[in-house]
């Protein structure tokens, strides 16, 4: 994902998104309660093997603002979710590059072997860190089958140049090679692309990806919005309306359709004694979205007090999973 700043976009009114209770116009701000924890994300750490120009979480080979989670810490949260009877279906791992964390295979095995038969999804750039874990990945595939383990590979665009300008020269070829290897080995693969590259409309983008997938025997249906997820650009400085309680009725949208009604993310900040639970994957650093140390502490309403809440979740409809 990214945080581009198109100069043409009107800039955000600084009076907006100041008070979690009310909007700049004094109206009650919308909040979203946890309707049931269905997806639990773990940020395994912000370190990454590359430094993309517009990485929304500012990952790089040196940024360890979010440090590596351990398999024991992940197990503690899975235990808590199980004990609380949460309707958990999916365990997500994001970074940074999750395969930089040496505990990732153990975390995946833990998620996949639990009796609830969770799905596990890893967001990866499919480059060297993933390839170094090839043997462990193949062992997971052999033990659990390919259906419940999904590797979502970031491929910004179907052409080399657009991807490489964001991620560094030669990165497209390496990511594509990793994606093709995963496909050849029978893993379930998805691709995360970007919706706003080069001014192309969605059907042009999907057609471009379709041709790429066909050339490399990658079994992804390019029309499937989850298997080929095209993310909108993230510009927290661009103007966007605030979401009031009245908006739900005006928009005909239900609060429980928003990601933070069904998911949370665990992060571990550098220097912190223990991990923390934040409202969602989109806002890992903003302290007002840190909800507590445990899942039960984090079971409370989230005021939609950030431009991302309005742009992606309520007005734009970005979805992170099925
Ligand atoms: S590969 Fe992903 S996590 Fe790493 S720098 Fe690029 S966008 Fe950020
Ligand atoms: S960006 Fe805001 S509305 Fe969207 S999931 Fe995160 S906290 Fe909820």
SSE layout and pairing:
Layout: E1 31-32, E2 39-43, H1 71-83, E3 90-94, H2 104-113, E4 119-124, H3 128-132, H4 134-144, E5 149-154, H5 160-167, H6 171-184, E6 188-194, H7 202-215, E7 228-231, H8 245-251, E8 263-267, E9 276-278, E10 290-292, E11 302-303, H9 307-315
Parallel strand pairs: 2-3, 2-8, 3-4, 4-5, 5-6, 6-7
Antiparallel strand pairs: 1-11, 8-9, 9-10
The structure holds iron/sulfur cluster (2 copies).
The site of one iron/sulfur cluster (SF4) has 16 residues, from helix 9.
Question: Can you offer a commentary on this structure?
Answer:
This protein is an alpha/beta fold. The chain has one domain (31-314): Alpha-Beta Barrel (TIM Barrel). 28% of the residues lie in helices and 15% in strands. The protein has nine helices and eleven strands. The strands form two sheets. The chain has a nine-stranded mixed beta sheet, with helices on one face. Strands 1-11 form a two-stranded antiparallel sheet. Residues 1-7 and 318-322 have low confidence and may be disordered. One iron/sulfur cluster (SF4) binds at residues 32, 258-260, 279-280, 282-283, 289, 302, 304, 306, 308-309, 312-313.
Rg result:
19 Å
- Total number of helices: 9
Stretches where pLDDT falls below 50 for ≥5 residues? 1-7, 318-322
Tell me the overall shape.
globular
| Overall CATH class | Alpha Beta
CATH topology: TIM Barrel
Total number of strands: 11
How far is the N terminus from the C terminus? 18 Å
